């Protein structure tokens, strides 16, 4: 369970670190433990899945290039059973396509090797802070509701099965309902990235959301596209 004070209770935060480089894994664990976290190490993708199935974690750190199963594969499998746990990818790959692939797999953030342990700790604390369980807030637009505490959305009483990024996108659009949100703003707030031409990421996830909403009976323009401006969910009222 996420804690209410990171400074006082980080020792209660359980982290799964999947890294096949034994020296780097050992040093990374040592740094995180010194900052008060509890860390389990998995040496490959299979062991990461096994440990995740057995234990309860608050955050997962995945190296991309691992034996048995890649970090991308592990992230996808984790997302099938847990849509909310923060996932941080460690990668030596700096190409845009690899970053996009990681986010599509379900990662919430990434860190390119070589990295400083100070930066790693800051990223971890930021992800945990965003993932903390808060007082329940229910966002609504027409027949659509989103319980931000339970991370559950429904339309006209029918539950939507959404990925972590789909939930994040829907959350941000609902928080800003009645206002046009640009692709740049969505990338910066939902994907925590600077805009660098990855507008197809937003378009792809909006398409996913629209499809799932239509399956529950929503109209095709529930999330409206404002040409050259962005997207909007209007401040609808239940009829």
Description:
By secondary structure, this protein is of the alpha/beta class. It folds into two domains: 6-131, Rossmann fold (3-Layer(aba) Sandwich), CATH 3.40.50.2300; 138-232, Arc Repressor Mutant, subunit A (Orthogonal Bundle), CATH 1.10.10. The protein is built from nine helices and eleven strands. β10 (224-226) and β11 form a beta hairpin. The model is unreliable at 1-11 (pLDDT under 50). Residues 136-235 form the OmpR/PhoB-type domain. It comes from Candidatus Mycosynbacter amalyticus. One of its GO terms (cellular component) is cytosol. The modification 4-aspartylphosphate is found at residue 63.
CATH architecture call of the largest domain: 3-Layer(aba) Sandwich
Q: What is the rounded Rg?
A: 19 Å
Domain unit count = 2
Mean pLDDT: 84
Approximately how much beta-strand content do the residues carry?
15-25%
Q: What would you call the shape? A: elongated
Work out the helix count.
9
CATH class of the largest domain, please? Alpha Beta
Order of helices and strands: HEHEHEHEHEHEEEEHHHEE
Secondary-structure class: alpha/beta
Number of strands: 11
Order of strands across the main sheet: 2-1-3-4-5
The major β-sheet equals: 5 strands, parallel
Contiguous low-pLDDT stretches (5 residues minimum) are: 1-11
- State the end-to-end CA separation: 39 Å
Helix content: 40-55%
Write the CATH homologous superfamily of the largest domain. Response regulator
Say what the CATH topology of the largest domain is.
Answer: Rossmann fold
């Amino acid at each position: 369970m996420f804690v209410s004070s990171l400074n006082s209770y980080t020792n209660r935060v359980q982290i799964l670190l999947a890294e096949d480089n034994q020296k780097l894994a050992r040093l990374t664990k040592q740094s995180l433990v010194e900052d008060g976290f509890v860390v389990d190490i998995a040496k490959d993708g299979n062991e990461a899945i096994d440990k995740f199935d057995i234990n309860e974690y608050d955050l997962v750190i995945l190296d991309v290039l691992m034996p048995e199963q890649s970090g991308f594969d592990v992230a996808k499998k984790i997302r099938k059973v847990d849509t909310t746990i923060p996932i941080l990818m460690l990668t030596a790959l700096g190409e845009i396509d690899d970053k996009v692939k990681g986010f599509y797999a379900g990662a919430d953030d990434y860190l390119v090797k070589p990295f400083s342990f100070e930066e790693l700790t800051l990223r971890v604390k930021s992800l945990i802070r965003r993932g903390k369980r808060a007082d329940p807030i229910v966002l609504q637009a027409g027949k659509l509701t989103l319980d931000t505490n339970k991370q559950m959305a429904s339309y006209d009483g029918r539950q939507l099965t959404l990925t972590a990024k789909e939930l994040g996108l829907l959350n941000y659009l609902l928080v800003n309902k009645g206002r046009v949100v640009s692709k740049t703003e969505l990338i910066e707030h939902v994907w925590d990235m600077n805009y660098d031409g990855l507008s197809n990421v937003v378009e792809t996830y909006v398409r996913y959301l629209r499809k799932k909403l239509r399956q529950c009976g929503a109209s095709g323009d529930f999330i409206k596209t404002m040409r050259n401006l962005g997207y909007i969910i209007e401040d609808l009222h239940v009829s």
